[in-house]
Structure prediction request, 309 residues.
Amino acid sequence: MMKRIAVTLKPYHREPFAYQKLKICRNCRHFTVLGEQNCMSCGKTGALQNVEKKAAGIVRSDQWLTGLIWLLLILVGLIFSSSALQTVLLIAAAAAAAALLWTLQKRFTPALRRIQLQKMFQQYGYELASGLAIDHQAAIRVFQEGDKPRTYEMLREIGSLVHNDQLKLEQIMLLQTFQLRKDMDLMIEPLLMDSFNPDLVSYIGEIAKIRRDLIKKNTFRYVLQHEMHILNMPSGEAILASVAGAAVRKSRYMTMYPYLLIRYARLLPKDRFLRLYKFAKSVRSGPLYDEVMRLYEEKYKWDPEFQNI
Ligand SMILES: [Zn+2]
Prediction:
């Protein structure tokens, strides 16, 4: 096994929607998710603009145009008005219309921006895909230059929009070369694949030890789906025990995955088993209860920590 390197990873900034990290070049319409200063396609400085801002800008200029057309119509009306009364009426009508237009625009602007954004993605679908491919190439270049943490950070950003196994695997392989620590901004669910992958499983095993809170429903499902394959791995059983140890974190998970716990309860460290024991006591019956009580009798019957529960 290769020696793992100590690294510092930048925290991952999460947005409610993945596309919110996308930027577009004002000059050449190159898309990127990497948050660079200069456009990687045309090299222009400061030309990258957040896609939401871009969409808002387009909507705003459309609205200005509408306003301008209204103003022109009113001016034409004023030129052709033949009496003072007509002028006054025209101005009053124009003011009312302007107020209405302003209210409508204000009310519908958020929806208009969303529609504009969708239009942009449809219109520039090809540019978007090729932009993300260029981002990926940039990450590979950084890897070849030897900066693994930065490569991982770049792949992580691209992975928020591109969901393919290749990209996930590249991230996992890099993570496997780092000394993983509790305080790192790690993730697991975005890296899950459909098929069995031993590197992914090893990574899950590590996370189950240092960041149990990251092991959630999808990870449990993945592990259970590929349990037989995992058992064939050299440290497979230990990994499954760590995952079972993570399930003990919440009573919801203990209710959802009783068979995972039944199969690996005997391998749980004492603190984990104690939690499981308390839960089983509260449930009072069923196959999980039977197995936990059997193990309790076998291993912890005389343990003071298990008394008074
Ligand atoms: Zn550009």
About this structure: The pocket of zinc ion is lined by residues 25, 27-28, 30, 39, 41-42, 44, 47 (CB under 6 Å).
